[in-house]
Design brief:
heterodimer, A: about 325 residues, alpha/beta, Rossmann fold, Alpha-Beta Plaits, 4-stranded antiparallel β-sheet, 10 helices, globular, disordered C terminus, B: about 280 residues, mainly alpha
């Protein structure tokens, strides 16, 4: 199947600041993709280029087989832009009807579509109010809802849950998953726990480069690492006792603010045997724990991958690779 | 093509409904109405005063000829049209474009700034957005100009109990010329608005052109008055046909020149808007 978004050696600079460099990405259809990376990694720039707000500096982009500014893409791509505001003083429903009409819907269809979009984010009762009279969270939900107007094949969501409370965040996640059927959704977010739940694959950007793009299951699959979050920082006796277990390869302790043990185990031994042995030591030492997890979270993996990339970048003797 | 027209129409109607809610537009419109309210009130009072004394009427005509730099023999046309309508014509042609510039200077600028266009450009062609908004600005300008024409009829009816065919024709012609006078400035606003993304820059550039252009011509004419045909260069710049219109000497170039300028400004503005980035 043809990729929904295809970039080849994509680069973009703003003056001396390089926002993207050499990004080669192929987003498959009908998937929810997470776009992650630290601030300034180039996520919003990539979204802006795919949406046609910005022109690529170098390289090329194809969206649904067309150039981002092609009239063929009108209404087929939609975006929840970061920091964009709806018109003040005009009711949200009127604005949504306008968007729907621009996408080619008749006035009647536009009205129904606007109501449907607002209903999906629980804002129907605020339909006749302007965005200025809504709370931040409501405005965010309204902006999110406009991205679902019509029947876009590709939806780009830039920080859809930023500033939202946990209950609304969960609703947004469910909505995204519901809407993902038969279309591609790309989500840029710092809420990696949400992305881990919602996304099929994750693309990691760092310093404008694509450093990884794999299915979430591959990135955070069960590994030889076991993380035990403790109530108190582990003492030397506990650490020594765990270290002495034949199934354990190494132990790293967390700091005072984050009491935990990161235990690397022998991968050839049965998981349950290892778990029981470690828990046995905890019982003997009367150590109290809060959480035991096999494998690392997406957040930890992203931090690890980003740090590795940074280390490679700093040790790379070839200056041309830093362009 | 159908889709394109439909999008222009949608943007145009949406913009037309929204524009009066813009603070700059509504405040300017209030001042515009106040100016004309006081002007008509003054003209009604002046008309009664001038009808009573020929010497004062002569003084007033002298004043007009001084303002417009006319020859005394050119009074006749003024006499025929009447002081009230001549004054209306002069004021319309000298002031309306300034109000229109303020009302139409923000066709795209502020929404480039607040990124509202990010909601539109994935749904609609950029040319369609630009043209829809320009048409809306032109309609608002035309509505403001037409309103002054209607008010002039009202004031004339109040003065004379009725209005003549000549007066109707004069007002319609004046409104047409005022609109033509404003046209290049509205298009210039749209061009600068698309380029700069700043309302202030758009307003400043258009205002400067509207204010400075006549002054520049005055300086040129004074400095090189002996150069043959120096006065004719006015003809090739927008907003320089006040005299011709008032003296009923308008010619084809008075129509063609503003239209050509408008077309050039729209073409450049549209090209800029189609190519510009929305960071």
């Amino acid at each position: 199947m043809n990729p929904v978004v295809e970039t080849k050696d994509l680069g973009k600079a703003f003056g001396a600041t390089v926002a993207l460099k050499g990004v080669n990405l192929e987003i498959p259809p009908d998937q929810v993709i997470g776009l992650v990376g630290p601030n300034g990694a180039g996520k919003t720039t990539l979204f802006s280029i795919v949406s046609g707000f910005l022109k690529p500096g170098v390289g090329s982009v194809r969206v649904l087989g067309h150039s981002p500014l092609s009239p063929e893409l009108q209404g087929r791509v939609s975006i929840l832009p970061q920091d964009a505001s709806l018109r003040r003083g005009v009711s949200i429903i009127k604005q949504f009807e306008f968007f729907a009409k621009l996408q080619g819907l008749s006035p009647k269809e536009a009205s129904a579509e606007a109501e449907k979009a607002l209903g999906e984010v629980d804002l129907l009762e605020k339909a006749d109010e302007g965005p200025d009279s809504l709370s931040h969270g409501m405005r965010k939900r309204a902006s999110l809802a406009q991205a679902f107007i019509g029947n876009p094949e590709l939806i780009l969501l830039d920080e859809p849950t930023a500033g939202l409370d946990p209950v609304t965040t969960q609703k947004v996640r469910k909505l995204v998953l519901r809407k993902a059927e038969g279309r591609t959704i790309i989500i840029s977010s710092h809420n990696l726990a949400e992305l881990q739940e919602a996304c099929d694959s994750v693309a990691i950007l760092n310093l404008g480069k694509l450093v990884d793009f794999r299915p979430v299951s591959e990135i955070v699959g069960r590994s030889k690492t076991m993380i035990i979050r403790l109530e108190n920082p582990p003492d030397d006796q506990l650490t020594k006792a765990v270290c002495e277990l034949p199934q354990v390869v190494s132990v790293n302790s967390g700091d005072r603010g984050n009491p935990r043990m990161i235990i690397t185990v022998d991968g050839s031994i049965d998981d349950s045997e290892v778990d029981l042995a470690i828990l046995g030591v905890f019982k003997e030492q009367k150590a109290r724990y809060r959480e035991i997890r096999r494998g690392e979270s997406l957040e930890e993996k992203v931090v690890q991958i980003t740090n590795e990339d940074l280390a490679n970048e700093n040790s790379d003797p070839d200056p041309s690779s830093k362009q | 093509m159908d889709k394109s027209f439909s999008q222009i129409r949608t943007v145009f109607l949406n913009e037309l409904a929204f524009t009066p809610r813009k603070i700059a537009v509504s405040v300017t419109f209030v001042f515009f109405c106040l100016l004309w309210g006081f002007t008509f009130k003054g003209l009604i009072e002046l008309d009664g005063y001038l009808k009573g004394a020929n010497s004062e009427k002569g003084l007033f005509l002298d004043f007009l000829t001084w303002i417009l730099g006319l020859e005394p023999r050119e009074f006749e046309r003024f006499e025929k049209t009447g002081i009230f309508f001549v004054s209306f014509g002069i004021l319309s042609l000298l002031t309306t474009h300034f109000f229109v510039i303020i009302m139409t200077s923000d066709q795209t600028a502020s929404e480039i700034g607040n990124r509202y266009f990010r909601y539109l450009v994935t749904r609609c062609g950029r040319t369609e957005i630009f043209m829809g908004r320009l048409l809306s600005a032109l309609t608002i300008s035309l509505a403001a100009i037409a309103l002054t024409g209607i008010a002039a009829f009202g004031a004339d009816c109040y003065l004379n109990g009725t209005t003549s065919f000549d007066s109707v024709l004069f007002v319609i012609k004046t409104c047409f010329w005022v609109f033509l006078f404003c046209l290049p400035f509205v298009c210039l606003c749209s061009m600068i608005s698309a380029w700069s993304g700043s309302v202030a820059t758009s307003m400043l550039c258009s205002m400067s052109l509207a204010f400075l252009l006549p002054k520049v011509f005055n300086v040129i004419e004074l400095k090189w008055k002996k150069v043959e045909g120096i006065k004719d260069i006015r003809e090739y710049f927008p907003g320089n046909f006040t005299h011709s219109v008032l003296l009923d000497n308008a010619n084809a170039s008075n129509v063609i020149v503003p239209l050509v300028y408008s077309a050039v400004f729209v073409w450049i503005g549209c090209s800029i808007f189609r190519r510009r980035e929305f960071p």
